[in-house]
Amino acid sequence: MLVTMNDVLYPAKEGKYGVGYFNAVTLEQARAVIETAEELRSPVMIGTADGLNGFVPLKEATWILKPLAEQASVPVALHYDHGYTFETCMDAVKNGFTSVMYDCSTLPYEENVKALAEMVKICHVMGITVEGELGHVGDNEGSGKLMNPSDYFTDPDVALDFVKRTGVDSLAIAVGNAHGDYKFPPKLDFERIKVISDLVGIPLVLHGGSGLSDDDFRKAVSLGICKINIFTDIDKAGRNGAKKAIDAGVTVMREMLEYERNAMKAVVREKLTLFGSVGKA
């Protein structure tokens, strides 16, 4: 069933478990996520992002994701991740997404507050939930790489002001996490997670979940992280599934799909179990 972000994150906050958010830009990725969530009776979030529109345009992604979410037997929030402009976030809303992340984290603080507050005002009228980001979660490689990540960590007192002034529904924080493949084991600032969670009182979001250890996930969830973003892990699993198919002598694309889907389902199953959301639907 298609729901909003709040419908899955606030029960998670109350129950002290995490909800997995998975970017999915192919039918097999989407099926892997939703089929596994149904098998495990787990709520889940699924969607796409600005940075993935070059691979699958937003409208085409919607044709894949929305029907699957609507027909699912478990709660599925359809989320647009890292929307960097007002226009792309509104496109997501018009296409039926129930949640958007308006990422203005690289803007000066007051501009971030103003832009996000306006987005929240518009989206809440339409019943759409909104995620914001404070601090900045960089990339492990590429143009978003941060030389000194701790300079961009989320300040707890500023986070409280930010939440009060924007009315945002969930908050992505920077605590040592980063997007993409980690070159070295990350060191999350767990004390910062706890302090922010206690202060702001809304669900917290951890971006850059692929590559963190099981203990990192468990501890982060216990301290207030309610939504964990995963993409690199399932993307790589799909690739490995395709390689396994080729190694097994498969010669046509249609026969490779099951290999890819099953490999991704294994990762989704592992993450949903680790986050503690199994049986919570």
What does this structure look like?
The protein is an alpha/beta fold and 281 residues long. It has an eight-stranded parallel barrel with strand order 2-3-4-5-6-7-8-9, surrounded by nine helices. It is built from ten helices and nine strands. α9 (232-247) runs antiparallel to α10 (253-275). Residues 139-147 and 179-184 have low confidence and may be disordered. It starts with a strand and ends in a 6-residue tail after the last helix.
Describe the structure in brief:
The chain is α/β, with parallel strands linked by helices and 281 residues long.
Beginning-to-end CA distance, first to last residue: 11 Å
Under CATH, the topology can be stated as TIM Barrel
| Shape call | globular
Tell me, rounded to a whole number, the average pLDDT.
91
Give the CATH H-level superfamily: Aldolase class I
Rg estimate, integer Å: 18 Å
State the low-pLDDT regions, or none. Answer: 139-147, 179-184
Cross-sheet strand order for the largest sheet: 2-3-4-5-6-7-8-9
Jot down its keywords.
single chain, alpha/beta, TIM Barrel, 16% strand
Topology record:
Elements: E1 2-3, H1 5-15, E2 19-23, H2 27-40, E3 44-49, H3 58-71, E4 76-83, H4 86-94, E5 99-102, H5 109-125, E6 129-134, H6 156-166, E7 170-173, H7 190-200, E8 204-206, H8 214-222, E9 225-230, H9 232-247, H10 253-275
